[in-house]
């Protein structure tokens, strides 16, 4: 079964620090990768997606993909208390239809 | 903006009742999904549909059925609700293809007593 693994956390960082969230996946044929943020009691919303090896930056967020090592990460620079949420990694493992989700990492940013 | 709506935010039902959860999307997406989310277990796929009247079982289909009679609407049915089906239910939709994100509805918090 295709798997997506994330540390469940909680990951706790001080305000202004860099938060680093990691995700590994089992299917070497995976081609597209997504990071979702989910606030408590709310539904997941997309933050970033990445398809190519390397880094992709969007404001304070950077997604990093290394297909050879089968991991994808999300860096949050200048973390804010409003970034406190669960972050879900999702992978498209060659299916045209659906994504496979990790269980998520709970991030807490302390003021 | 893509919009996925669910019929109820909160629902309380009794054991043995038949429960219908409705989901509607307005962006002509081929694929629609039903998940449940429980603490520590993450998102678990119940069923998905890749076309009208087409459906496939996800990871935990037992105790559930689905219906997709129109492209924009996907229903989840609990034939005889049980207390272990108390959960947050999330509907989602996406276009077919490798590069497309998945959009989620706001969720239905179902409590079965």
Instruction: Tell how many strands the DSSP assignment of chain A holds.
Output: 11
Overall shape of chain B: globular
Alpha-beta classification of chain A = mainly beta
Give the ordered list of helices and strands of chain B: EEEEEEEEEEE
Helix content of chain A: under 10%
Question: How large a portion of the residues of chain A is in β-strands, by DSSP E?
Answer: over 45%
Roughly how many Å apart are the termini of chain B?
A: 37 Å
What is the CA-atom radius of gyration of chain A, in angstroms?
A: 13 Å
Largest sheet of chain A: 6 strands, mixed
Determine Rg of chain B (CA atoms, Å): 13 Å
Mean pLDDT of chain B: 95
Notable features of this structure?
heterodimer; A: 111 residues; mainly beta; six-stranded mixed beta sheet; five-stranded antiparallel beta sheet; globular; B: 113 residues; seven-stranded mixed beta sheet; four-stranded antiparallel beta sheet
Would you mind describing this structure in some detail?
The complex is a heterodimer of chains A (111) and B (113). Helices cover 0% and strands 54% of the residues of chain A. Chain A has no helices and eleven strands. In chain A, the strands form two sheets. In chain A, strands 2, 4, 5, 9, 10 and 11 form a six-stranded mixed beta sheet that branches. In chain A, strand 4 (32-38) and strand 5 form a beta hairpin. The N and C termini of chain A lie far apart (40 Å). With 113 residues, chain B is mainly beta. Chain B has no helices and eleven strands. In chain B, the strands form two sheets. In chain B, strands 2, 4, 5, 6, 9, 10 and 11 form a seven-stranded mixed beta sheet that branches. Chain B has a four-stranded antiparallel beta sheet with strand order 1-3-8-7, with no helix packed on it. Chain A binds chain B through residues 8, 31-32, 34, 42-46, 49, 51, 88, 90, 92, 94, 96-99, 101-104, and chain B through 31, 33, 40-43, 45, 48, 50, 90, 94, 96-99, 101-107.
């Amino acid at each position: 079964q295709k798997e997506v693994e994330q540390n469940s956390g909680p990951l706790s960082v001080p305000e202004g620090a860099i938060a680093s969230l990691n995700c590994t996946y089992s299917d070497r044929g995976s081609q597209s990768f997504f990071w979702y943020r989910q606030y408590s009691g709310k539904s997941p919303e997309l933050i970033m997606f990445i398809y190519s090896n390397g880094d992709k930056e969007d404001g304070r967020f950077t997604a990093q993909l290394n297909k050879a090592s089968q991991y994808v990460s999300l860096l949050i620079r200048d973390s804010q208390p409003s970034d406190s949420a669960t972050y879900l990694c999702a992978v498209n493992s060659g299916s045209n239809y659906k994504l496979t989700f990790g269980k998520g990492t709970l991030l807490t940013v302390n003021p | 903006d893509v919009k996925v709506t669910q019929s109820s935010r909160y629902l309380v039902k009794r054991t043995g009742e038949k429960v219908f959860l409705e989901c509607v999307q307005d962006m002509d997406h081929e694929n629609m999904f039903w998940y449940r989310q429980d603490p520590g277990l993450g998102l678990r796929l119940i069923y998905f549909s890749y076309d009208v009247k087409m459906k496939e079982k996800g990871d935990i289909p037992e105790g559930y059925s689905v219906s997709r009679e129109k492209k924009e609407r996907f229903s989840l049915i609990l034939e005889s609700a049980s207390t272990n089906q108390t959960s947050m239910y999330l509907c989602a939709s996406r276009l077919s293809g490798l590069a497309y994100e998945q959009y989620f509805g706001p969720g239905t918090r179902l409590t079965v007593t």
